[in-house]
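Order emerges. One example.
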Amino acid sequence: MDIIKIFPDKQKALSLLDTLSVRLDLIALMEKTDISKYASKIIEEYYETVLELITALMSLDGYKTRSDLTGSHITTIKYLKATYKEFTEGEVQLIDDFRERRNGIKYYGKHITAEYVKIYESRIKQTIEKLKSVLKKRLSQS
């Protein structure tokens, strides 16, 4: 199995939530500095933000992915889709598209255009805010 049952870890979830502000500040700084120059890095940071939020949810729920297997990011996204029905197919697909783009950047030297960032920026920001909201709600319940 690609997901392992663990003890719920509220501290890990809180820690991941705390680190997001730095990541989001970095994205804003890169966008203000030169969106064309940093477009690929911006997409990577948006994706890592989303991944950390889902990982925080999993930690609260008492699960983690097996990092020794390939495809752990896919498993993380599938977990979100299966467990948190408030996320639409479009939102899940957007996250998966960012995963694929991030992999292209990281492993194949692909580049992202500033136009791509501008097209999808508001949707990914909305998805991040929704993830944060769901996470904060879950934190208040635990």
About this structure: The two ends are 26 Å apart (CA to CA).
